[in-house]
Design goal:
Strand content: 15-25%
Helix content: 25-40%
Distance between the termini: 31 Å
Oligomer: single chain
Number of strands: 6
Amino acid sequence: MEQFEKVVKGLECWRYLYPKHCDACKYYTTDCTAGIAADALALIRQQQERIAELEAAQQWISVKDRLPEEDVDVIAYNCNYQQIAAYTTNPTKYWYTISGSTISPTHWMPLPEPPKEEEHAAD
């Protein structure tokens, strides 16, 4: 995030203050635009990679292509429902919901990470 703030500040200085306050910019050199552009492009590429990772993690996976790890909760889907379920091979192969029902999903996806616990200030 520190690099992001540096690029934003450099762009703001270049856009709004140039050339009056260049000495306040962390990119203050004879060719500051090259440094700002290089860092901005690097950040854009990093963000594009992260977006691709996040999009890939949110794709439905066909049960024909791959099954989840055994006894790990996932979101299961077929044309009639979408619910939390797990797949097991003990003693036979089947899917079960948290209520104990068996189901036959067509697709599944991993559960998202749970929210981070926020520390509450003492009242």
